[in-house]
Amino acid sequence: MTRIVLLFTLLIGALGVTAQDAQLQRADDAIRVLSEIMQSPDRRIPTEMLAQAEAIAVIPNVVKAGLVLGGRHGRGLISVRSPDGTWSNPSFVSLAGGSVGFQAGVQATDVVLVFRSRRGVDSIVNGKFTLGADAAVAAGPVGRNAQALTDGQLKAEIYSYSRSRGLFAGVALDGSVIRIDHKANQKIYGSKVTPRRIFEGGVGQVPARVVDFRDRLEEHTAQ
To answer: How many distinct structural domains can be found in the chain?
Structure first.
């Protein structure tokens, strides 16, 4: 009986480690996507836009699939701008949406969302947020020429980007829903940890691979 209890305890512990490893891999994938995008001067997100962002979400491997009726789904991370101008520890999020029209097969893309106001971030913290309905979302400008854009030309509250098969460009995501992934947060930060507590610096012992996402944002948004 003692052996059975011991084996059961070890199994539960192993499952916990595996579940956390899956979230750490998500952090690694988000860091990779952000770094690869910003290494291309001609096709990257304008540094000025990132420097003025209130929040940035990176969602790798968003899978879009279907025939006539389709949908997309992915999981990633989001960090918000702190009052002192630095980036918060990230919260885990999910992105889901549907589409109608001729389509066939499966396609995976990397998605980056640049929030230019706090309103969208507050909506996510309080539940879920529908792109295009709760705030205007538009395909974002890319490359060196986009640096010349003025605030007067950038009207949307959120700018969206997508990378598929090496191509990187703005993408329309109207109707997609982004929400906090509470289960993933609990696996990394512990039980009963709220997104607001994460964003306000109220968590400790954050895994280095998750902190690295925040650090890469600091690096890419520094002016």
So the answer is: 1
> Which tokens sit at 181?
């992934």
3-state secondary structure the chain: CHHHHHHHHHHHHHHHHHHHHHHHHHHHHHHHHHHHHHCCCCCCCCHHHHHCCCEEEEEEEEEEEEECEEEEEEEEEEEEECCCCCECCCEEEEEEEEEECCCCCEEEEEEEEEECCHHHHHHHHCCEEEECCCECEEECCCCHHHHHCCCCCCCCCEEEEEEECCEEEECCCCCCEEEECHHHHHHHHCCCCCHHHHHCCCCCCCCHHHHHHHHHHHHHHCC
Amino acid at 46: P
* Separation of alpha carbons 69 and 214, rounded Å: 36
**Per residue in 208-223, pLDDT tens?**
999 999 999 998 887 5
pLDDT given for residue 70 in this prediction = 55
Q: Is 49 exposed, middle or buried (0-12, 13-18, 19+ CB in 10 A)?
A: buried
- The domain in which residue 165 lies consists of 2-221
Q: In the predicted model, what is the mean pLDDT of the chain?
A: 78
Whole-number Å distance between alpha carbons of 213 and 12: 28
Residue 204, both tokens? 């400790």
